[in-house]
Amino acid sequence: MTTSLIDHAEFAPLFHSCEVIQGRDNALMQRVFELRFQVYCLERGFLPAANYPDGCEIDEYDAASAHFCAFNLRRELVGYVRLVPPDLTQSFPFQSHCSDLLEGAALAPPSQAAEISRLMVRSDYRRRRGDVLEGVTVDEDPARVVHELRDHSPQILLSLYRQMYAFSLAHGVHYWYAAMERLLARALNQMNFAFRQIGPPSDYYGVVAPYLGALHELEAHLEQRNPALMAWMQKPENMDV
């Protein structure tokens, strides 16, 4: 029997994720903001470090967002993502940078959507050649991408997506927006998370394009291509922060 990660019912055995609640899990949120500062300000230079003298990257979307963290077996913070709901104008953060749509593309109902934002994996889990910010390998060879699913970083990504999926089902979120590099979108597709590009590339913390994922389509795609992964996604994970 092959030991490939794809063939296991347990898809992220080395990592666990949970939702982090602001106002309740303040110490952990502090670690989250420090990780975001490390990645977005110091490592990638997306934001000027001088604007965050306390070493914490915080913005106007955090208060309304849902936050999710991934931990290794030593309970160290190794990954993070948030889901941002629409603001009072029914807009999402990506729309301030990626306003144009491709021909035939349409937006989702704002009340049923959220934007995947600040998705990141800690640097020591993405040091292989070809790794991007989110930790997946973006080699052009599809066979190699599948091979890389055995490695740790995609486990972190899957663990976080599982938490976002559970949250979305519970809160009436049926669509996910994401501003992604083309190669990250390709890697996610290899993992059977299919997003549709809805706009041209723009400069939004690097050159990215907006994508839209409909959860019912994602579910149907996973059920067809990898029913074990779909069953794992639907199994709740309980973890105390």
Automatic annotation (TrEMBL):
It comes from the Bacteria. Gene3D superfamilies: 3.40.630.30. SUPFAM superfamilies: Acyl-CoA N-acyltransferases (Nat). Pfam families: Acetyltransf_5. This is PEP-CTERM/exosortase system-associated acyltransferase.
